[in-house]
Specification:
Blueprint (H helix, E strand, L loop, with lengths): L1 H4 L3 H27 L6 H43 L3 E3 L2 E3 L1 H18 L3 H16 L2 H9 L9 E9 L4 H14 L4 E9 L4 E7 L6 H12 L4 E10 L2
Antiparallel strand pairs: 1-2, 3-5, 3-6, 4-5
Keywords: Cell inner membrane, Cell membrane, Membrane, Methyltransferase, Transferase, Transmembrane, Transmembrane helix
Function: Virulence factor required for growth in low Mg(2+) medium and for intramacrophage survival. May be involved in regulating membrane potential by activating Na(+)/K(+)-ATPase.
Pfam family, one: MgtC
Length: about 240
C-alpha cells in the first residue's frame, strides 16, 4: 500500500515534534483566551495552531521549503474566513476583533512550527501573550479617560424632538443651522416616531468638533416653538 511504502520513521518523528510544539504553544495562547471567556478559547486556538502546523508540515514533506511557502500562503487567506466568523456587530459596536486577531496569530505560530522554526514560534507566542495581557492595563486606562471632542475624530449626532406635523420644517431647520455652523450633514435619521412626537437625528460627517459651537446650534434649535427638545451626542467611529 502506498501509505506504508512511504513510511519513514525519521519523518514521522519530525512531524510528531512539530505537532507537539504547535499543540503546546496553541494551548498557552488558548488558556489566556479561555480564562477571559472569549469566543475562541482553548480548543479553538489549539486546533488552529495544529491545523496550520500540519498543512505547513505536509508542504515540507512533499516539496520542501517551496511547498511550505505555497501552503502557508493559503493558510494566511483561509484563516481570515475563520476569524470573520467570530466578529460580531452590535449596533455601533464591533466585537471579536481581538479574538480574530489572536486566531490569526495562532495560525502563524502553527505555520512557524510546521516550517521547522520552533524557536520563532515560541518567540511569537510570547509576543501574542504580551499583546493580550501586558497591554490590557494601558487599554483600560485609555478607555477610562473622558473623550475630548475637540481632538477626537468621532461620530456626532444632533437630536431634535418635535411634533409629527412639524417634521418637514424641523428637518429643514436642522440643515440650515448646521450648515450655517459649517458642519456638513451626512444624513438625517428618524430615531423614534409616535403619535405625539418624533425624534430626528442629524448625523454629521465624521470630523472634529467644538463643543461650544454644537451647544450654540442646539440652543438655537431649542428656541423654536415647534422643537420640544434638542441635544447633541458623540461616539467614537469604528
Amino acid at each position: 500500500m502506498r501509505a506504508f511504502s512511504s513510511f519513514d520513521l525519521a519523518s514521522l518523528g519530525d512531524s510528531f515534534v512539530v505537532l507537539a510544539v504547535a499543540f503546546v504553544l496553541g494551548t498557552v495562547i488558548g488558556l489566556e483566551r479561555q480564562y477571559r471567556q472569549r469566543t475562541a478559547g482553548l480548543r479553538t486556538n489549539v486546533l488552529v495552531a495544529l491545523g496550520a502546523a500540519a498543512f505547513a508540515d505536509i508542504g515540507m514533506h512533499l516539496m520542501g521549503g517551496e511547498g511550505a511557502t505555497r501552503i502557508i500562503s493559503y493558510i494566511v487567506s483561509g484563516i481570515g474566513f475563520l476569524g470573520a466568523g467570530v466578529i460580531m456587530k452590535e449596533g455601533t459596536h464591533v466585537r471579536g476583533l481581538n479574538t480574530a486577531a489572536t486566531l490569526w496569530c495562532s495560525a502563524a505560530v502553527g505555520a512557524f512550527c510546521g516550517a521547522g522554526y520552533a524557536a520563532e514560534a515560541i518567540l511569537l507566542t510570547g509576543f501574542v501573550l504580551a499583546g493580550n495581557t501586558l497591554l490590557r492595563p494601558l487599554v483600560n486606562h485609555i478607555n477610562r479617560k473622558p473623550m475630548d471632542e475637540r481632538v477626537t475624530e468621532a461620530s456626532y449626532r444632533v437630536h431634535v424632538v418635535c411634533d409629527p406635523s412639524a417634521v418637514a420644517d424641523v428637518r429643514e431647520l436642522l440643515f440650515r443651522e448646521l450648515e450655517g455652523a459649517n458642519y456638513p450633514i451626512r444624513e438625517i435619521e428618524i430615531l423614534s416616531e409616535g403619535e405625539d412626537e418624533v425624534e430626528l437625528a442629524a448625523v454629521l460627517v465624521p470630523n472634529t468638533a467644538e463643543p461650544d459651537e454644537l451647544d450654540a446650534v442646539v440652543a438655537a434649535l431649542g428656541q423654536r416653538e415647534d422643537v420640544a427638545s434638542a441635544a447633541w451626542t458623540v461616539s467614537t467611529t469604528n
